[in-house]
Amino acid sequence: MKSRTQRRPTEKMSDTGFKMMTMTFKIIDLLFPYINRRIKRFNIKGGMTVVDYGCGPGRYTIRFAKEVGPEGKVYATDIHELAIEKVKEKIMRHNLKNVAIMLVKGNDTGNYESGIPDEVADVVCAIDMFFIIKKPKEFLSEIRRILKKDGILIIDDGHQSRKETKKKISESGMWKITEETRDHLKCKLLPD
Known about the structure:
The chain has one domain: Vaccinia Virus protein VP39 (Rossmann fold), CATH 3.40.50. The protein is built from 7 helices and 7 strands. By secondary structure, it is of the alpha/beta class. A 7-stranded mixed beta sheet has the order 3-2-1-4-5-7-6, sandwiched between helices. The chain has helices at 4-7, 15-31, 35-40, 61-68, 81-94, 136-146, 162-172, and strands spanning 49-53, 73-78, 99-103, 121-126, 147-155, 175-180, 185-189. α6 (136-146) packs across α7 (162-172). The N and C termini lie far apart (39 Å). It is globular, with a radius of gyration of 16 Å.
């Protein structure tokens, strides 16, 4: 039997699914406020450039923007229009000037006038979204394009096993896992 994500014809969830996910996150964040502690383990510093890849409703985006400060930059990307709307609302509410929002198609974040340049990111965070990616090698290749040579990819399992996550990363032939915690992996680029 195929899993829920294997049966889905696209990586983009339905509008209803997105709204339900957003409401679920609000409840989780109210009852279990762990995101700030989690982000501390990412070692994001002032002045860095961070990509929140698959930003969803912006749970991490706003916190990343505060961590990098006015000298840093955050790119918030998602394939869902509702995600982009939610992040825009939060940016306006928090009066943030260091966040660029981008609606993307598939994995491509560079074919836009305001696309993400090559080798710009110090950190790329792919939180709770890797499990839904249909072509992980293409996705990881795009991350490679936007990440600085000494940058870090932070990725979690989402709704798949750690074994599956590590298998997809390994099969790409581009990444070395440098740190493994209970809730995420840190990866560095393998030399060319």
